[in-house]
Amino acid sequence: xxxxxxxxxxxxxxxxxxxxxxxxxxxxxxxxxxxxxxxxxxxxxxxxxxxxxxxxxxxxxxxxxxxxxxxxxxxxxxxxxxx
Length: 83
Known about the structure:
Elements: H1 3-82
């Protein structure tokens, strides 16, 4: 009878250890998955920022070319009127 309570405690502790080991493995798997998702999100964010940056740069360049064209058009018109 003296061994019975001891065995019961050991049995419960072993079961708890098994559960804890499974939870630890799941936690590690979740950490890996989260790290992968974070990396993908960072890559997507960089791609999106680059895409918008290029579009904004193209828009600014277009505006500058349009402004320059308008300026040259005005100058030609002024020269034609001066003749």
